[in-house]
């Protein structure tokens, strides 16, 4: 089974490391001069060239049986070209729906999934209408830019509104989509993600819901299963994610990030790919999200998504590699082979414990030691 991955970052790396033991071989398609160090040695790397015909691109990638992606913010053109010669999972239309926050909101509405309220904004007048509808404070998000909290603005009063208007770019995006969406500050208690996988045959399986803590918009650590999450909210989240997967005829892993209270859930964002909040599955689940993504896109039987223990994951953000320090406390280290920059996701640590309290205690101790705060 030959697999081509669009993207050369850590998610592509971990997909390949999961697929190789199952007999897969890999090639990678890089875009926009991206850093290819994470996938070095895991298969041939081809730089995207728009002058290549669909057949030439297919040949350059080693005639893959299936193509997948490690990120949703990518060009759909190579995927559409490759679809003429092999399977592409998830399908380009599913990725298209999730590339733009406005389209993503419409998808949630169509599938009747609870979501954060929003108002589309394509002009100064529409921003003022959003203020009247939603009130202050507001979160403004660009519809096609931004990741890990980037391209987002918080507005607390009319002075903030005027400052935003002065620097905003109200040109409409692809498919005539609005450049921004406005959302109210949600009165939530915590953030939880649901990760599911759907096979070619339509089978859907879910990993346990995961509680996530962010720092400056970037995931810092996760805990699974999310403690004290009611059966009703779990059922609501899984039903919503299943409805989305089936509507899109989706194949592979998808993550759904949510705001939750004790009795309510709102979807904040979808990720049509393997997801940072599921990295703990590499060491605390029978079949990891990466292995199950590869199984799904290959048309193979899906793996067991049950936990083998309570799991906690700590992201290494801008942290130098230091095995002597990072491998204490029985932690498992996964390093991405990327150059160190402040705030950059460079690796993660996973710990497992037989109790939630034990996992939380060890996670907090590990976080304090790594970040010294």
Number of strands: 18
The radius of gyration over CA amounts to 21 Å
The CATH architecture assignment of the largest domain turns out to be: 2-Layer Sandwich
**CA(first)-CA(last) distance:** 46 Å
Individual helix count? 12
Query: Which percent band covers the strand fraction?
Result: 25-35%
How would you state the average pLDDT, rounded?
95
Elements, N to C (H/E): EHEEHEHEHHEHEEHEEEEEHEEHHEHEEH
Largest sheet: 9 strands, antiparallel
Structural classification: alpha+beta
- Shape call: globular
Oligomer: single chain
Helix content: 25-40%
CATH class of the largest domain: Alpha Beta
User: Are there runs of 5+ residues with pLDDT below 50, and where?
Assistant: none
Give a verbal description of the structure:
This protein is α+β, with helices and mostly antiparallel strands and 373 residues long. It has 3 domains: 2-88, 3-Layer(aba) Sandwich (Rossmann fold), CATH 3.40.50.20; 117-184, ATP-grasp fold, A domain (Dna Ligase, domain 1, 2-Layer Sandwich); 190-371, 2-Layer Sandwich (D-amino Acid Aminotransferase, Chain A, domain 1), CATH 3.30.470. 30% of the residues lie in helices and 27% in strands. The protein has helices at 10-19, 54-60, 77-82, 92-98, 101-110, 124-134, 158-167, 231-247, 281-284, 289-298, 323-326, 356-371, and strands at residues 2-6, 25-30, 45-47, 66-69, 87-88, 119-121, 138-142, 152-155, 180-184, 190-198, 204-206, 210-215, 218-224, 252-260, 265-271, 310-317, 332-335, 345-353. The strands form 3 sheets. Strands 10, 11, 12, 13, 14, 15, 16, 17 and 18 form a 9-stranded antiparallel sheet that branches. Helix 3 (77-82) links the parallel strand 4 (66-69) and strand 5. The protein is globular, with a radius of gyration of 21 Å.
